[in-house]
Amino acid sequence: MGLKPSQYQAIMRDYEQRQLKNHDILTRHYEEVYKQLPEFKSLDDSISILSVQYGRKLLNGDDKAVDSLKEELAILRSSKKELLRSGGFPDDYLDPVYDCKDCKDTGYIDNKKCHCFKKAVIGILYEQSNLNQILEQENFNTFSLDYYSDNYIDKKTGRSSRQTMQDALKVCHDFVDNFGAGTSNLFLYGDVGVGKTFLSNCIAKELMDREFSVLYFSASKFFSILAKNTFDKNNIDAQNMYEYIFDCDLLIIDDLGTEFTNTFVASQFFTCINERLLSRKSTIISTNLSLDTLADLYTERSFSRITSNYTMLKLIGDDIRIKKKLKIREDHSCYTEQKEI
């Protein structure tokens, strides 16, 4: 699932619109300053005239013209700055305006895609995957503790399913609230249907709403992309996606262990989590696997990286998917009975 030419062109048109918008803002700033400080325009005109005059001297072979120009321009610019302050304007009021100062709203830095460009691509990929619709249904606002029982007790900890999820929910909220201030990672594990994917989606939506770049993959899709990047050098989409996997603010790998696991998968998994740790990028991993099985399948090195650098959240409880289906049937049954009455 790569970027189509039309989508690339749409992103570049957005950059053009940003440039036009910010040019208009800067033009209004100049008009405001010129209106309030007429002498400011005189200084600008003097700089323009001076530059032309010294340009002619340079063409005529006057080597000293550059030094003289620098001195006179420095005096005029200093006068402009003092005049701007006297009018109550900030020092940077007439500086160029950019949405992204890193690439100056071009999308590229030294012929490489800027982080803002990559974020735009990830947003498009989310729309293609229909994940936006899922996040509208699965987020912190729609999360309910009603599916977690006080009677379901973990024999090892003595804590109920509800207590465990309350604690996990707090950790997830803290993860979002502190995101960007440091590097944090989450490892969600437990039985099928206890809310691991739902919690990942809750976090994804919050961070996307805060304009962080978030990339979500099922484990099988994730390793498929890594394989294509390694073995199919002509697959540009896979190469681009590989780049996004390492650069995005948050990477989510869902259902680890559902893919076909071999030495290649184990090696690629270690490389990914290790590189993201080194570059201080956050990752969330969810799995139905036990910790012992995780170590067996993905090597002790990966297991060590995860247990040392991730917050481990074990979720327990009944299968919520089954509970929801039973509730829908029950509600439908009650509705049918009422109609018959």
From TrEMBL:
<protein>
    <submittedName>
        <fullName>DNA replication protein DnaC</fullName>
    </submittedName>
</protein>
<dbReference type="GO" id="GO:0006260">
    <property type="term" value="P:DNA replication"/>
</dbReference>
<dbReference type="InterPro" id="IPR027417">
    <property type="entry name" value="P-loop_NTPase"/>
</dbReference>
<dbReference type="InterPro" id="IPR020591">
    <property type="entry name" value="Chromosome_initiator_DnaA-like"/>
</dbReference>
<comment type="similarity">
    <text>Belongs to the DnaA family.</text>
</comment>
<dbReference type="InterPro" id="IPR003593">
    <property type="entry name" value="AAA+_ATPase"/>
</dbReference>
<dbReference type="Pfam" id="PF00308">
    <property type="entry name" value="Bac_DnaA"/>
</dbReference>
<dbReference type="GO" id="GO:0005524">
    <property type="term" value="F:ATP binding"/>
</dbReference>
<keyword id="KW-0235">DNA replication</keyword>
<feature type="domain" description="AAA+ ATPase">
    <location>
        <begin position="182"/>
        <end position="313"/>
    </location>
</feature>
<dbReference type="InterPro" id="IPR013317">
    <property type="entry name" value="DnaA_dom"/>
</dbReference>
